[in-house]
Amino acid sequence: MKKRIGILTSGGDCPGLNAVIRAVVNHATLTRDWEVVGILYGIQGLLERKFIELKPHGLDLRGIDPLLNAGGTILGSLNKVDTDARAEEVISGYRDLGLDALIATGGDGSLAILHKLAQKGGWNPIGVPKTIDNDVAFTDRAVGFDTAVNTIVDALYRLTFTAASHDRVMVVEVMGRQAGHLALHAGIAGGADCILLPEIPYSIEKVCQKIVELRDRWNRQFAIVVVAEGAKTTRGESRAYTNPLGEVRLRGIGQYVADEISRCSGKTIEVRVTVLGHVQRGGIPSASDRLLATVFGKTAVDLVAAENYGQMVAWQNGRVTSVPLQEVVMNSPRSVNPQDDLVETARAIGIYVGDVGEVKV
Ligand code: F6P
């Protein structure tokens, strides 16, 4: 049966979203001869009935399809809609667009909103996990994570040389909210000496000990400290601020850690801070993210064809699968397991990853 499906991108953007859109449009139109509607600015587009008809090759530049490798999202994204207060308007937006199903890319927050609205409004949703934080439950990978890890690794590579030239400690603050996947993966891959995560409290004294040991025992005069924006000390200290809109944002832990290292060493260690910020959300999607986005987009369309709604596509043990949205929402965000193989591996090769024995998830 011919269908008309909607696609939207919700929450923070990340590299690979356009590749999901491309896969959905191509598979739905070329294989199934369905219509695909791109809803602008996520749920806000349903509220305001803002959409565009999407066709394969619709954005070709002399035959080159930019969707595969362009960062961001051509549909725009927003996560500020008051969906509780305006639920009825959003729900009728879905009906007015004449949709048979809605494919939505989102992180844990957006997927929870989508699930709630779908239940209230009798929609047919399919979720596609995307977030550089990689904290959506039941999927080993979300779209955008791999590219962000590569961006951080590239920054660590650059910082290593300037750190070594000046005998400095470089503290690098990375995103991830309350999850440390980004910091852990990029820290190991990028050669960090200390990796500070939200899930495993750290002590500044141990960070200093590590840096001094590198210097005095191994004659290594510089060090790289990767700190996740949500990291906490064993005393529970973290850093956040409230912006003029009243939203709490994690920011400032890098400077805090740098100041503490300086204090703890009696100002004998010279420290610099780099906050990578939204650079981590930009850039050309990695090959791995493009592949994941393409498999996810194709599988989302297959789920619609099978009328197997209320599911999120997922990547588990090297294969694509699907998981009920309800389960995902109940178990997200997914934290770093302090007993994870990567944590053990990092410690085994001499990286300080918070305090063993004082685990807090
Ligand atoms: O969830 C993705 C993320 O990039 C987090 O890592 C970060 O804390 C947050 O979004 C930043 O949000 P915003 O784009 O609203 O500043």
Bound molecules: 6-O-phosphono-beta-D-fructofuranose
Q: Which structural category do the helix and sheet elements fall into?
A: alpha/beta
Kindly report how far apart the N and C termini lie.
47 Å
Tell me, what's the shape? Answer: elongated
Number of strands: 13
Note the main sheet. 7 strands, mixed
How much helicity do the residues have? 25-40%
- Calculate Rg over CA atoms: 22 Å
User: How are helices and strands ordered from N to C?
Assistant: EHEHEHEHEHEHEHEEEHEHEEHH
Low-pLDDT runs: none
Produce the secondary structure layout:
Layout lengths: L3 E6 L7 H15 L3 E5 L3 H6 L2 E4 L32 H10 L4 E6 L1 H14 L3 E5 L15 H22 L2 E6 L6 H9 L4 E3 L7 H15 L4 E6 L11 E3 L5 E3 L2 H12 L6 E5 L11 H19 L5 E6 L2 E6 H7 L9 H8 L13
Parallel strand pairs: 1-2, 1-4, 4-5, 5-12, 6-8, 6-11, 7-8
Antiparallel strand pairs: 2-3, 9-10, 12-13
Helix pairs in contact: 1-9, 3-4, 4-10, 5-6, 7-8
The structure holds 6-O-phosphono-beta-D-fructofuranose.
Q: What is this entry, summarized?
A:
With 361 residues, the protein is of the alpha/beta class. 38% of the residues lie in helices and 18% in strands. The chain is built from eleven helices and 13 strands.
What can you tell me about this protein's structure?
With 361 residues, the protein is of the alpha/beta class. The N and C termini lie far apart (47 Å). The mean pLDDT is 94. 38% of the residues lie in helices and 18% in strands. The strands form three sheets. The chain has a seven-stranded mixed beta sheet, sandwiched between helices. A four-stranded parallel beta sheet has the order 7-8-6-11, with helices on both faces. The site of 6-O-phosphono-beta-D-fructofuranose has 11 residues, from loops.
